[in-house]
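Project outcomes to date are best conveyed with an example. Our students and postdoctoral researchers have been running inverse folding experiments weekly, and each run begins with a structure described purely in tokens. The record below, which covers 97 residues, was selected by the lab manager from last quarter's runs and is presented without edits.
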């Protein structure tokens, strides 16, 4: 949504994507700060396992964002719309049950 609105307001596709990603940083860091104290290491969760999970998540997220920027730069953002619809409907369906 932020990418499309940014582009409608006159930003280039690349600038709108960069702004959108920068906008997500406070939300992600805030969620991490709030959830980190709930981390239960007493049940065998090792720091190495947690580090691997965080690292993998970072790399997959980086690749997905790179793909989205690539799609946005080429003016093919509409290609991403079916994915958004499917994920959005799935999220709504799971929240209802």
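After processing, the design step wrote out the following sequence:
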């Amino acid at each position: 949504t932020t990418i499309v609105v940014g582009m409608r307001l006159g930003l280039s596709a690349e600038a709108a994507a960069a702004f959108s990603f920068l906008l997500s940083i406070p939300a992600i860091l805030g969620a991490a700060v709030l959830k980190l104290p709930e981390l239960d290491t007493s049940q065998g969760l090792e720091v190495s396992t947690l580090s691997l999970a965080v690292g993998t998540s970072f790399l997959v997220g980086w690749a997905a964002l790179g793909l989205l920027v690539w799609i946005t730069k080429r003016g093919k953002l509409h290609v991403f719309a079916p994915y958004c619809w499917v994920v959005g409907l799935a999220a709504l369906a799971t929240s209802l049950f």
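The two ends are 26 Å apart (CA to CA). The mean pLDDT is 85. The training component of this project remains on track.
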